[in-house]
């Protein structure tokens, strides 16, 4: 029997039970929509993480005080005070794989401008800190090396700080602010960067010369961390090894001593968060796939019921010349048709759900062609797999027994 005739017979059979077909199809629709929306959320999160890691700077190498494992006790990087400005200067002079190095000190402070006040993070660094972090000046200027030497009371501020202290659209350059009662002149405004993956406002920041923050606002010789830029992405691992070697010599550590610092690269952070994002995406897609499998079980259940109800019809068709493979193909076509149409509707529904999640939930979602094709292919496979047994059962009926069936 020609394939076209089989398709016509299958479509007529399905059209007789529209509600049953729709309810069976519903499982496939929900399954495909779930897979697409979960993959969209996962892909959106992955790209958002990559963007946040990129916002750290270009080929960035980060050195934190303290080791992850200190004296047999697991500690977080930054748990100890072991890094100094001198360490940063030594790295800048000796590490051939680094192009820029800046010590970093930070303090959360209250800032006042006229009658307005705002609580923000004040960061002290060399002027190279701006380029290491890939920050850009929208208006005004960056502080100079002379400002660093003289501990000048100047700063550049982020967009959030500017808006809260001076109002929307007001130029802050040339204005004076007080940080912990110390007057500072604003000489530059940073370009807007927005929030990172962790919800931190990257525009809520004030950057001043390292010497100014350390001498006028802090006490002690230790720094929070050291930031550096490697010559290229391929040099980051070499840079990490050389930084470790130089700092061990600088800190006079013996071969048996553990590092009293932790070196991380931008690639390390990207790999960690990328792995987490990948695992979560697979987990979400796997959970969503369960509903697709349940939909497949629904198809098999309905097809088995259909075989039972149409036993006499099958017997009559075989009696007038239909072959077993014709019956097999007819029921397979019906099963695949249900999963095919359900898959198409599920794709549209999944795209709609993803857009609603992005609009009202604020989650980043990215729908890729591969996720759509994967979901559609999976639904087709489900239709073939779960339709095979009922179709095989129908094709295996004895025509005489089928005609006797009441």
Name some characteristics of this structure.
406 residues, alpha+beta, 2 domains, 6-stranded mixed β-barrel, two-stranded antiparallel sheet, 13 helices, 55% helix, elongated
Distance between the termini: 27 Å
Shape: elongated
Rg measurement, Å: 33 Å
The count of domains is 2
Number of helices: 13
The low-pLDDT segments are: 70-79
N to C succession of SSEs: HHEEEHEEHEHEHEEEHEHEHHHHH
Helix content: 55-70%
Say how many strands there are: 12
Strand proportion? 15-25%
Overview in brief:
This protein is of the alpha+beta class and 406 residues long.
Walkthrough of the structure:
The chain has 406 residues and is α+β, with helices and mostly antiparallel strands. The protein has two domains: 3-52 and 272-404, no CATH class; 101-231, no CATH class. The protein is 55% helix and 18% strand. The chain has 13 helices and twelve strands. It has helices spanning 3-15, 18-54, 85-94, 128-132, 145-150, 159-166, 210-216, 236-250, 266-309, 311-319, 324-361, 369-395, 399-404; strands at 60-65, 69-70, 73-74, 98-113, 116-125, 137-140, 154-157, 176-179, 182-190, 205-209, 225-230, 261-265. The strands form two sheets. Strands 4-5-10-7-9-8 form a six-stranded mixed beta barrel. The protein has a two-stranded antiparallel sheet with strand order 2-3. Strand 4 (98-113) and strand 5 (116-125) form a beta hairpin. Helix 2 (18-54) packs antiparallel against helix 12 (369-395).
